[in-house]
Amino acid sequence: MKKIMFITIFILMGSSLVSCFACTTIIVGSKATNDGSIIIARNEDSSTAHDAQNMIYHPVHKESFLFNSNSIDNPNSNKFTYKLPKNSLSYIAFPHWSSSLKENYSFEETGINEYGVAISATETIFNSDKALKIDPYLLITGTTEDSITSVVLPQATSAKEGVRILGNIVENIGAGEGFGVAFSDRNEAWYLETASGHHWLAMRIPDDSYFVSANQGRFQEAELNDTMNVLSSKGLLDFAISNKLFDPKQEPFNFFKCYISNTPHDITYNYPRVKTLLQIYSNYNYDKNDGLYPVFMQPKKKMTVWDVAAGLRNKYNGTPNDPYQTKNPKEINRPICVLRASLSHITQTRPDLPDDIAYTQYIALGMTDLSVYIPFYKGITNIPKEYQGAKDKADNDSMFWKYRKMQVLVLQDYPRFSPMVHASISKFEKDISLKQAEMEKKYLNIYLKDRALAKKIIQDFTNTIIAKESKMVSDITTKIAKALGMENLTNEQYTDLLNKTEATYHFHGA
Q1: Phi, psi (rounded to 5 degrees) for 65
Q2: Dihedrals φ, ψ of 445, to 5°?
Q3: Directed axis angle between helix 305-312 and helix 271-282, to 10°?
Q4: What distance in Å separates the CA atoms of residue 467 and residue 471, rounded to the nearest whole number?
Q5: Is 436 inside a domain boundary?
Q6: Whole-Å CA distances, 181 to 67, 363, 490
Q7: Are 345 and 328 in contact (CB under 8 A)?
Q8: Rounded to the nearest 10 degrees, what angle do helices 491-504 and 399-410 cross at?
Q9: How many CA atoms lie within 13 A of 164 on its CB side?
Q10: Is the pTM of this model over 0.85?
Q11: CB neighbours (10 Å) of residue 393?
């Protein structure tokens, strides 16, 4: 997640955007998972810890609809607009709280539409100064994280079509910043990276492989004529050659070397996260500090949702680089798990199941290491009230703030309190998995006879686990608060404590 923190003449001339947002993305192909599912996942790391996210259902818009960027409070902010067609598709998404006060929802970080097309937007990346000097970002009118989910999901009927829609927007309207975006459907997963203000490259994730990204473009070699697996902006290669971004007589085309910013800052901010995930999933070691890690890797064993969750929760566990366990907020290597994460999702598509249960978004609120991944099925009929209404100040009702209160208390003495929280989360997630299997069995036994009753089974399951989730988090919070002598904190005091603690463990932006 990112916002333009300031705009200068230097940036307008094409240099990389300054951002305090940062994310980590994991994508897994169907033959690399233990059950044939396709996974796209990402930690949505915000600029602060109080940037709440909620859940919303968008019905079909029968009439055409003009999307307006919500980044319009500052005269220099983005003013991207996009006209959506009639009879746009319905979808569920997770927008930032502030967009509920504006003309339309935005910063909808992840979502699934009625066709089962899922999106994760965006991974902050930065394109090279050389490319941006020639073709700069369109900071005022180009598409940004604020808009991507909201304009793609109402239209896309497949992951590949989603790529084409976003690519067309970048080519014809422009990108307002650098980004990477993941797409999936029943058949495949894709990832798109910007190259400059009007250029982009997208690649299909090989079925037998996984892909990871951490605030830096990752694509390297690409067979641009293989349109089954590679899509790009028109003239991407010619642009690189004519502007001397590389010499085809000297070396093959490498997207990373031509179009991706690669600076000493990446060595501690981005490389360690990619390297850690490659080690976890493939026992892969890469000693060079050039950013040229393998793009697609085969895992050492078939991956599960919980393997992906472990990656998104990683904080250099068991090493001296774990900033929370060692109480070292000045750790030089930025961890995958940070307090300012507002939401993490693991979107799983199981192509052999009926729509209602084929698509599941596992959602963890706040800091992933201290949050439960709750499964939300495409077939739910009502958005739980606990996942609505959170704003930028602590409250007593929303699940977002229940987690935030617990998380900030744990970080007052992480080594002391985290083992108890980890044990509770682990047990809760194992219990959920068992109940999911039971629920899905009941659903499959009845959905052909009574779709409405089958959907009710999904909704009842969701309501039950969220009620238990709420109680569990509240009980843990009460116990830790009492141990710290903080049981009488007001919501205002919780908000202040969260902001102060996040400032301590901020790990400055991408």
Answers
A1: -140, 130
A2: -75, -15
A3: 150
A4: 6
A5: no
A6: 19, 18, 39
A7: no
A8: 60
A9: 10
A10: yes
A11: 15
Q: How many domains does one find in the chain?
A: 1
Nearest by Cα to 391 from 443, 342, 451: 342
CATH code of 273's domain? 3.60.60.10
What residues have CB less than 8 Å from 482, skipping those under 6 apart? Answer: none
Q: What is the residue whose two structure tokens read 């998380």? A: 407
How many Å separate Cα 438 from the centre of its chain?
29
- Say how far apart CA 287 and CA 452 lie, in whole Å: 55
Owning domain of residue 25: 9-381
Residue 433 lies in a domain: no
In a domain, 54, yes or no: yes
The pair of structure tokens assigned to 162 is 């989603």
What is the spatial distance between Cα 435 and Cα 29, in angstroms, rounded to a whole number?
26
Task: Provide the residue type at 177 as one letter.
Answer: E
Is 353 exposed, middle or buried, given 0-12, 13-18 or 19+ CB atoms closer than 10 A?
A: middle
Sort residue 4 into left (φ over 0), alpha (ψ -120 to 50) or beta: beta
- Kindly name the residue from 20, 23, 258, 337 that is annotated as catalytic: 23
2 occurs within a structural domain: no
The beta-strand segments (E) located in 55-178 are: 56-58, 65-68, 81-84, 91-93, 110-113, 118-124
Amino acid at position 436, single letter:
Q
Strands 230-232 and 110-113: unpaired
- The whole-angstrom separation of Cα 94 and Cα 50 is 15
Separation of alpha carbons 342 and 401, rounded Å: 10
> Minimal CA–CA distance to 177: which of 329, 21, 302, 283?
21
What is residue 423's DSSP assignment? H
Q: What is the pLDDT along the chain (510 residues), one digit of tens a residue?
A: 443 333 333 333 333 333 446 799 999 999 999 999 999 999 999 999 999 999 999 999 999 999 999 865 566 688 999 999 999 999 999 999 988 878 889 999 999 999 999 999 999 999 999 999 999 999 999 999 999 999 999 999 999 999 999 999 999 999 999 999 999 999 999 999 999 999 999 999 999 999 999 999 999 999 999 999 999 999 999 999 999 999 999 999 999 999 999 999 999 999 999 999 999 999 999 989 999 999 999 999 999 999 999 999 999 999 999 999 999 999 999 999 999 999 999 999 999 999 999 999 999 999 999 999 999 999 999 999 999 999 999 999 999 999 999 999 999 999 999 999 999 999 999 999 999 999 999 999 999 999 999 999 999 999 999 999 999 999 999 999 999 999 999 999 999 999 999 999 999 866
For the question of residue 23 being annotated catalytic, the response is: yes
Q: Say how many residues make up the chain.
A: 510
- Rounded CA-CA distance 189/184 in Å is 4
Give the helix, strand, coil percentages of the chain, each rounded to 5.
35, 20, 45
Interatomic CA distance for residues 51 and 429, integer angstroms: 25
